[in-house]
Amino acid sequence: QTDWFISFVSFLNKTSLEKIINETDKQLYLTNLVIDASGIFVKLCYAGLFSIVLVIILYLANKAQISPWGRMMRAIRDNEVSANAMGKDVVKRHLHIFVIGSAVVGISGAMLITLDGLFTPASFQPLRYTFLIWIMVIVGGTGNNLGGILGGFIIWFVWIEAAPASQYIIENLTLGLAPDNKFKLHLLDSIPYFRYLIMGAILLIIMRFRPKGILPEKIRYS
Fold first, then answer.
1. Which of 112, 143, 151, 172 has the most crowded Cβ, counting Cβ within 10 A?
2. How far apart are CA 26 and CA 16, in angstroms?
3. pTM, whole model, 2 decimals?
4. Three-state secondary structure along the chain?
């Protein structure tokens, strides 16, 4: 760790450090504080980087959406035959979208590696990188940039918290059963799979009551 960071951590925890008389214990305590602070600092830096990139991409996407180019792309999306009849090169526009989408995915991949540190083919999970993203878009709202971001935060939060919440609920519901009860053990072993059940339930609820998503696409007239 750099000297300025260690000095900063020492300044923040000055009162606690002064209470420790033994110099060895004080140094050990400071080392642990620096390690903990380093983790927090790295997470804050990544959160700041993520926020900056997200704001830039959102700004560019919104500007493109309300531009003549964006209106043309929506026309092609809604009716390719009519757009082609009006002289729009549909195939070329599809290539444009493919290139732009690939660029955004490339930026996302770079940020994923920044967070995880390593990505190998063996670590690829089709459910995590395909089906979950699809649910995020549906829940947030297709055709709405803010909706996609909102859906991403909601679904990822539910995905992360589904297993701990399921374990807490199951443990409380089965308090009256013996620790070696087969039904209880089966439920506890099935906790990781409750994520899929919850994701499916969310998808069904959204498709039934909010088919256009939480933030549906705004209708624009031009």
1. 151
2. 9
3. 0.76
4. CCHHHHHHHHHHCHHHHHCCCCHHHHHHHHHHHHHHHHHHHHHHHHHHHHHHHHHHHHHHHHHHHCCHHHHHHHHHHHCHHHHHHCCCCHHHHHHHHHHHHHHHHHHHHHHHHHHHCCCCHHHCCHHHHHHHHHHHHHHHCCCCHHHHHHHHHHHHHHHHHHHHHHHHHHHHHCCCCCCCCHHHHHHHHCHHHHHHHHHHHHHHHHHHHCCCCCCCCCCCCC
**Cβ burial, residue 143 (10 Å; 0-12/13-18/19+):** middle
Domain ranges of the chain: 1-66, 68-124, 125-222
Q: Tokens 């919850």, residue?
A: 198
**How far apart (Å, rounded) are the C-alpha atoms in residues 68 and 140?**
25
pLDDT digits (tens, 9 = 90+) for 131-170: 888 899 999 988 888 998 999 999 999 999 998 999 999 8
* 70: its two tokens: 């964006």
End-to-end Cα separation, the chain, in angstroms:
57
* Residues in CB range of 125: below 8 A, 6 or more apart: none
From residue 108, alpha-carbon distances to 30, 50, 97, 206 in Å are 36, 9, 16, 26
